[in-house]
Amino acid sequence: MKAPHQPTSASHRQPTSPIEVLPRDEAREHLLTIADMLAKIMDTTVRIPGTSWYIGLDPLLGLIPGIGDVLANLIGTIILGLATRLQLPRIVVARMSLNLLINGTIGAIPIFGDLFSVWFRSHTRNAALLREAAMRPDRETAVDWFYVSGIIGGTVATLLLAIAFVVWLLYRLWVMVSS
């Protein structure tokens, strides 16, 4: 009689996978590192000479009228996507979304919004929330994926509407001035 766990022939062996699956802790740390790098690029890449302040890509993109803040916040939603992959609690994802919403809404105000982005650093805040929540053992289940997707979609839609309003307002002002 054959042992229950031994294959009967070479044809019944499972093929080895060419893709290496990282252990859960290594994969989690990899995603956290991506979030930290993205936050640094977006918020604190370059030191402003003569000050202790750092700026990143976010306020620089904000200088592009109309689409700069949309691009910065769409990049910021990558951190929200990482939060969903790590299955963070809904309240943490909601806080992260609120940070992006605040940054996107105030960031749409010319000049002031860019200065606010330098101070507020929504991406750094979100990366810190992500790291803190990912290290806790209590997690939400897969049931929350639909909710999290709705939060991300709602955040993106709200940001796009806010930017569209600012562009429309600038267009109306341009039409009034040029008439």
Topology of helices and strands:
Layout: H1 24-43, E1 46-47, E2 54-55, H2 57-61, H3 68-85, H4 90-107, H5 112-120, H6 122-135, H7 145-178
Antiparallel strand pairs: 1-2
Q: What is the strand arrangement across the widest sheet?
A: 1-2
Poorly predicted runs are: none
Strand content: under 5%
Distance between the termini: 95 Å
Whole-angstrom Rg:
22 Å
How many DSSP-defined strands?
A: 2
Domains, number = 1
How would a textbook summarize the main sheet? Answer: 2 strands, antiparallel
How many H/I helices?
7
Range of helix content: 55-70%
Report the mean per-residue pLDDT as an integer. Answer: 82
**Overall 3D shape:** flat
Listing every helix as H and every strand as E from the N terminus to the C terminus, the arrangement reads HEEHHHHHH
Q: What structural category characterises the helix and strand content?
A: mainly alpha
